[in-house]
Amino acid sequence: MNFKKILGFVAVAALAFAYSGAKAQGEYEMVVEEEATLLAPDSLDYYSSYAETDDILRAAVVMSDIYGKKDMEFTRGLLLGMQQSGLPANSVSLKLINGEIPEDSLHYELDNFDPHVIFSTSDKECPLPLLNYTRSHGNKLFNVFDAKGDEYLYNNNVYQLLTPSLYFNTSSANYFLQRYPENVLLVVGDLDPSDTLTRELILAWPEEYLMMISPEDLGRFSLDDNISYLIYPVSPSNDDVKAALNETLRLIGETPTADVRVIGRPSWISLNDLSNHIANMDVFIPSKIYFEPTSAAGKRFISDYNGKYGHSPIRSFPVFAVMGYDVAQYFLPRLVDERKGNEINWQTRNLLQSFFDMRKSGNGGYYNNGAYILHFTPWGFMQKDLLY
Question: What is the mean pLDDT of residues 278-302?
Answer without folding.
Answer: 94
